[in-house]
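Box S2. Input/output pair 1.
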Amino acid sequence: MADQEHEHRTITYFVNGERLMTHKDDLTVREILTAAGFNPVDQYRLTRDRGDHVYTDYDHKVELHEDERFTATYLGPTPTS
């Protein structure tokens, strides 16, 4: 019964201030970036705001906590005018 309750729990997290929700306890870096609309994923780096941890492996599983905050940073060249 505890496992079923755990599966139906909703976790709210944020990427660049955008509120997202999941029923999973962990997501890959790729899943987090994709859910937040950052595509193609390999052009972005994900950083956990608390602790300033930078993820370099897109397949790394990230344990999510309620109200967890992340920052997605574009890795490509910045256009100039």
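Box S3. Input/output pair 2.
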Amino acid sequence: MKLSDYFAEFLRDEVNLNQSRLDDLNERVGTITAVLKAADNLEGRVLDTIPQGSWAQRTIIRPAFGNQFDADFLVQIAEDAAWNANPQLYNEAVWDALRSHGTYSLMTTRKERCVRVQYANFCHVDVVPYVVQASGAEVIVNRSSNQFEATNPMGFTSWLHEKDDLTKGNLRKVIRLLKYLRDRRSAFALKSVLLTTLVGNVVDSWRTFNPEYYADVPTTLTHLLDDLDAWLQARPTRPSVSDPSCPATTFDHRWTDQQYAVLRERMHVLAAQIRQAFSSGGVRSSVERWRNIFGTTFPTELSTHAVNKSVRNKTLKSVIRAPKEEFIEDRFRVDLTHIVEIDCDVVHFNRAERRTLRSRGNRVPKARKLLFRIRSTDVPPPFRVFWKPRNFGPESEQARDLRGEIIADNGKNVREETTKYMGRHWMECYIVKNGVCVARTCHQVIVS
């Protein structure tokens, strides 16, 4: 049985990293960035900061009691020809800047490819020096070998977000659930990057022809585990797994033949258990089976905090309406028979450099130009396009600039905005044909 509401509550209360910790993480990264920019030895060299790993991919989970959670971010340093001859100077500069700072001097340790800042409340942040060379090559530095290493972390994040879009946003939640089974239930052992790649690889666009295949979290979990199990069982020996953002690079060094054999066996058992729980006929029987898999923290019944979605949607406008906010339902009849997908490019005002927002985990600093554009739609022309920017957070509230107005497109299917306020914001896009809104989507923007 699906028990979608049970999974929503389980993710919220037990699996997801709580918002207060995410807010602390954003604040700490912002503070570290400010320190690096102000450091004498790095003055003018720090160009950007970019989240990476599970933080950027939004697959980070709440750690078990007494364990740490961590986050990585890239600090882009301007290329220096003299430093290129001795690459470890990039790492040394970041190390010196933090080590000489009063706050971070005793919190900082050096790793092979990063500088780690350790906090008291079971959290550490890895600061990874990163350089975009004149040739366009993206590199980090291995301090031990004193060599550059090719990287494309934003490409990996972008790949994952594209796969997540195919599953209606359920892939990331499934990965978190699998990490929970790995870390809290010892269901299997596998590096996070391999887990994410293997599960993401079995997401197939042709599956979306069946709109129910990735309909919700338990359905997606069941189908992805079945598909992954079939892929593993078809490969008795350890396969080569490529980095989807750098096909010439593999993750083969991250597991052994024995580890693969154990994983293949355990995933086979886990897929069968999940299929049985999903197929169970009654709520009580299904809950019992899901609890056998996830443990006693999986809810036996919904708490009083679980709100029916239909009721929540009916009251949403009155609860969070901004002073100038408009809603598409008030202007057009809504009958969502088509799809539209949008992308967003991040542009530096003083540099030609441009990257997709998804490749940054939807995170971007202030003072960046955002170019939203329609990537694809199955709505046959002609049609009209409308955009709705919506700001959230204390800064935009204080500035009385929560936005929320619906803006007609200028005919280019592109909307330009600027990042001004810290917070989690949204851009919505609507396609209207013959007076009916037939497609809509949204894109999150996290300004930090």
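Caption for Box S3: The longest strand covers residues 436-447. DSSP finds 13 helices and 19 strands in the chain.
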